[in-house]
Amino acid sequence: METTTxxxxxxxxxxxxxxxxxxxxxxxxxxIKTILEKAQAEIVxxxxxxxxxxxxxxxxxxxxxxxxxxxRADGKNIKEIENAVxxxxxxxxxxxxxxxxxxxxxxxxETPAAEAERExxxxxxxxxxxxxxxxxxxxxxxxEGPEGPEDIEQVEVLEQDQEEIAEDEYxxxxxx
Length: 176
Description:
This protein has 176 residues and is α+β, with helices and mostly antiparallel strands. 39% of the residues lie in helices and 27% in strands.
């Protein structure tokens, strides 16, 4: 009697050195694809997730580029993928999760790196921001902001809060 197993959908988050990713992006991508293909995985999607400062140095690296990959594979082959990553000199860490409950929309959702790229693109500069930024300049004669004396204080508090949020931004802690 022949049994067939359905390949499950997995999400893999690969961490690579930022310097290596920026200088040899195709090589890093090919390394990940080769590892997955050797484990008989079918790649659904692979994209740069983001470039982040690491919470602590890993193998002497302070920054890392996260590559998000969705693939279908037999569950028995996941250990083979993890072992191949450990032997790889290009990939620092990997986290593989079952993604069976993810929808096509979730898989194709824009990554932080894609959002940043879109914001930096010339089209974004031509179109301008979605909302007009408020002026925070203070009139030296009246010491009033654009909407009055109280409004400028609110704008300054909001800007300070946004800076604190950016500093406290959550960074996932890689597994050892």
